[in-house]
Design brief:
By secondary structure, this protein is an alpha+beta fold. 19% of the residues lie in helices and 30% in strands. Strands 7, 8, 9, 10, 13, 14, 15, 16 and 17 form a 9-stranded mixed β-sheet that branches.
Length: 244
């Protein structure tokens, strides 16, 4: 049965549908040896579909995993600087999974990876908002903590107010905070803290939506999500789940 190429690429775990459109537009995708155009359709069972000359299979079993990303590991599948990547940590996963969003090199905690392009879209597309919660250890004046929960401009963009909970304040002016943000701007929490006069000592993502970092997971380890956990992510995103 014919389907749009971007849906086929997404279903094969190549990339999200949005990324697939860019891939097609770049001329990297061919169908039966002919360069594809955005909007083209194909039958994954009957046609030969290639990305950069490599054949793409049809739909494969979907896998979504939770990784405890350690600090010092980059959120990418390969790195030109030969730094350790999350790809090295999930080699035993039965499918090629891609990161859902990013955690910067020096941050740690819950990172989702999936080969379900539709779920990847639902969790990263700007029109959907999935809250993310971080445990952040900072050093700075306690009286400025409320400023972290106010609207502020980050790189020319006005972010929505964050939710900030003080878990602990110490005599040495360090504070352990839980911060929930509603967007995923690049290094957003670090920039928020810097703007309010705080130095970030540790940053750990502890939740995506209602999904919490598994306390049994050690840094560098991962596990498959249960069906009910995936269903909760779909519900939280507000996106309609793809028909299976």
């Amino acid at each position: 049965m014919q389907e749009r190429l971007q849906k086929i690429l997404s279903g094969a775990g190549i990339c999200s549908r949005r990324a697939a459109e860019k891939l097609i537009a770049s001329g990297a995708v061919t169908v039966n040896g002919v360069t594809a155009q955005v909007g083209d359709r194909a039958d994954p069972e009957a046609d030969t579909i290639c990305v950069d000359g490599r054949p793409v299979g049809g739909h494969e079993a979907l896998h979504t995993i939770m990784l405890y990303k350690p600090a010092g590991v980059v959120t990418t599948m390969s790195d030109e600087k030969n730094r350790k990547t999350v790809a090295e940590l999930v080699r035993q996963c039965p499918a090629r999974v891609l990161p859902v969003g990013r955690l910067d090199q020096y941050s740690e905690g819950l990172l989702l990876l999936t080969n379900d392009g539709a779920l990847l879209d639902a969790l990263t597309h700007p029109r959907y908002h999935v809250d993310k919660t971080y445990e952040v250890t900072v050093r700075g004046p306690r009286e400025r903590i409320p400023e972290l929960g106010k609207p502020m401009d980050i790189d020319g963009y006005t972010i929505r107010p964050a939710q900030v909970q003080v878990c602990r304040s110490n005599p040495d002016h360090t504070h352990v905070l839980h911060i929930t943000i509603h967007e995923g701007r690049n290094r957003q929490i670090r920039k928020m803290c810097a703007q309010c006069g705080f130095r970030v000592l540790r940053l750990c993502r502890i939740a995506v939506g209602e999904l919490k970092l598994d306390k049994e997971l050690r840094p560098g380890r991962w596990r498959e999500l249960a069906p009910e956990e995936i269903a909760a992510l779909w519900k939280k995103s507000g996106a309609a789940q793809r028909e299976k």
